[in-house]
Amino acid sequence: MTRTPLLIFLLTLFLTTLQVQWASPADSYSYDAGTLGVLSPEVLGAYPGVLLLFLLAVFARRQIPLLRQAAIGTGLLAVYWLLANYITFDARVASWSTYTPLEIWGQVLPASLFSIAVCGLAHFSSSWLILRQTRGKKNH
Question: For residue 90, which phi and psi values (nearest 5 degrees)?
Answer without folding.
Answer: -60, -45
